[in-house]
Design brief:
heterodimer; A: mainly alpha; Rna Polymerase Sigma Factor, Chain: A; Arc Repressor Mutant, subunit A; 2 domains; disordered N terminus; B: alpha/beta; 21 helices; disordered C terminus
Chain lengths: 196, 807
Amino acid sequence: MNSTSTRVSLLMRMRDSQDREAWGEFVQRYAPLIHAYGRHRGLQDADAADLAQEVLRCVARSAAEFRYDPARGSFRGWLYTVTRNELRKMAVRNDRQASGTGESAVRQILEQQPDVATDEAEWTREYQRNLFHWAAAKVRPEFRETSWQAFWRTAVVGHDINAAATELNVTVGAIYIARSRITARIRQEIEAVERE
Amino acid sequence: MCPTREQLETMLALPPALQASLEEHLGTCQACRQLVDELTDVGSLVAERPSAEPKSAHLQRAIQQLLEHSEAPATVVPAENEAASTARLTLLAPIDRQGFSGKLGMYQIRRLIGQGGMGIVFEAYDPLLKRTVAIKMLSMLTALNEEAKVRFLREAQAAAALTHENIVTIHAVDEDNGIPFLVLQYVAGESLAERLKREGRLPLGEAIRIGAQVARGLAAIHEKGLIHRDIKPSNILLEEMSDGAVSGKDERPGSGDPRPTRAQHGPTVKIADFGLVKNIGDEPLSASGTVAGTPEFMSPEQATGHAVDARTDLFSLGVVLYAASSGVSPFRSDSPLLTMDRVRETKPRPLQEVEPTLPDWFCRLVHRLMAKGPGLRIQSARELAKLLEQSQAGPPIPPPRPLMSRRLLALTASLLVIAGLAVALGIYYGRGESNGGPDKRPEPAPAKKPAAGFMIAGRRDVHQDLANALMAASDNDVIEVYGNGPYRTVPLNIAGKRLTIRAMAESRPVFRSKSPGARAQEPFLQTDADLRLEGLTIHWSIEAPLGKSEANMLARCIVVSTGGQVALAHCRIVAGQMDVCVGASTGNLELDHCHFAGEKAVGAYWRPVAGAHLTADNCVFEGRIGLSVATRAETARSASASLVLTHNTWVVDKSIQLMMFLGTKQPLELTTRGNLFDNTQHCSLIGVMVSKKIEPTPDKLIGLVRSFINWTESGNLHRRGAEYLSAQRPTGVGASAEIASVAGWLKLWKLPPEHSVEGDIRFHQRDGKSAILPPRLERVDNESGPVPAKVGADPDRVGPGAAHHSQ
């Protein structure tokens, strides 16, 4: 389906280089994702942070040119491609720096290339995870701490509802309602991002 | 007793004040807990999403650097508005245990009336004024959304400023525990949506009556500078009369009876739900271009995310009238996105085909409201209300005599109405046959209509030439043209006035230059404001220097606005060599059922500002270039313009390209559907102008075109062996991309190969010598296979048709 209407708001806004707010939101949203992916691929914490920085710089540079067309694949997929490319570039750079000293950690990581399908599935999982945490952090201030704890403990951490009700000194019904409301609110944020 | 699934869903969305009973119930009821969990579906959200890694200092540093790197002010992440967040927190505070049917402020909630996307409506009782009221409040979920809250408050402000018989009155804006709510007039009765659900479709007279009242309400809204933006059957309330006389329950749909006599007896119609009302000139609520409204009844500009004006409501009302009179919603589909695509690109099935009992004038009126280009619609709600009221205001029908059956009565009434409205509408297009019945009654308007000449709508003077009429006209006037002419005229210049020039019923005026034979020095009509032409034929040629600069191009346009929007419907422009038939250098360009021709002429020239759009539907382009688009170098790269080309025929002769793009900065969204592209071997579909310095290789060319054009197409017919892309340098032809077939072309845009077809095209009436087609093409054949459905050259869809038969 090709729908101009629901297309790429954040990217569109970023294209207009004046929109710093869009950029801030973009960085907050995607840097942790790229970092987590890098970590998953075996990068050191610092290297993964560098990867995130490089990828987002690259996105910033190309945002002006970039025309995101849902018919040509998702934004998520595009970002994945950019990330892989950056990872490869990093490997080459590290290689050069490491030449003579022998081993390059990044190089090694690249060589332990998982097959693309597995890697992309991992990326997607990471993406969803990241999106969830981003949305959760975004909506959290909207709720009372008790409500939030009721949701977080029972829905995310997996505590028993009755136990949580006792701990938090609320009724079981209140927990159900809080869960329902917070879940819906988080889902709303996630859907808004996914519509873009 | 347990609530149903639907009730439970509604209750979960209620504000906490009204949730006490639910909370209590969930404390004991296992079944409902399970149902809540099902509705909530926490699992799908949280699965695969375990807790995040502990915050990485490296990551925080990276983020900080990225943010600082930009030359942005420090406010990258907006600080939470203190007051707003406090208000939000109180939303979830535990509140007294009043249960579902408790109190809100001082109002006693009686029952839930309905729940929409954004809010909940209750019936309530105002103990102070002792009356029943309706209370609309945001659903909890929506109340947390700042944007929705702002929108809601706007509703309050907008609606509070309006008092009109056809608009639901707002009594008060109140608040309960931080949740704002509206106290509205209680309208007893049902919505049009409910009525349609029950009855399928309405008798014509009822549809007209409702349409007229909605139009009157809209006129009041628009005159306050507001736009409703969500006109749809569920927002149109039919107020039951106290004597119980709801909308003629004995009337059966199917008869097509207009029944003007019932006009005074039916329910009062009230427009509800200002949820989306927006102050004209306000900043758009969502910079992200969020589409607001209901897809089925949305206007194309709304569905595209473009700026809308009051005419968007007229489109929606057109869709409502279509659905109400036929029982068929013209753009409905299984998915909202598909529906929006249809709204943007598909012509609805002719209403008369759907419901043959409906009179011609009504179908035409509805289709005119549903024109894709706002400039092609009836322009104001007041004008529409007047048209619909005129149709109701037939002479009073005598009380039924025993010998005259109800059916016959109704028939007489309908004929009277048809005759009246046909005149009022100024029917100049379509099939052209007379619509009046045997009882054609005399023209009701006081001003006498001339056989020839020009009048300004609403005034009495008859002008003998267009120049005088233009001089006498004021901003926003309509100039009515009577008779066929030919009218000989000097070049005309309208400055600062938005005008419509409209051929009236039975008139097919032709305009020519005052000096026969010689070329004029200037355009036939130039303006710096909005311009609409309807049903005019113009023969003109201009003596002006050639050149591709902006000034040169504009000087060669026969009809041109340098500062406003241009809309042409059912016009035919025959240009001289190298001339441009119509041009717009700033605003939108909307072309519907037009024919542009001329040896070596350009059909249309457009230089859009950011966000502008061009629509061309069912037009024929002949000459050297069909469409020439100059993109603005000074426009930011993010400021795109859009073109929607549907069911057009492009038979450009001895040409280099059908569409020419000058300048390559501004992104263009091109949507094409059902066009016939008859470009010959040395003529490409798209041409781009490149600078002298660039040696365009085929690869470079493809890259260049894709860097600023986003092309989508479906259902087009391309000439077999045609060229698709070429570059032109100021010195001559540069290069063409080697694209061998339509499949290759589609692949370039990542479109499936079945989207369009190619073939050997033949127009039976074309003699092969003249560059100019006969006014109406009879047939087109694709000798290699079938013509795709609804392609430009379908006989019914080609050319301006009957409007130009008299030529």
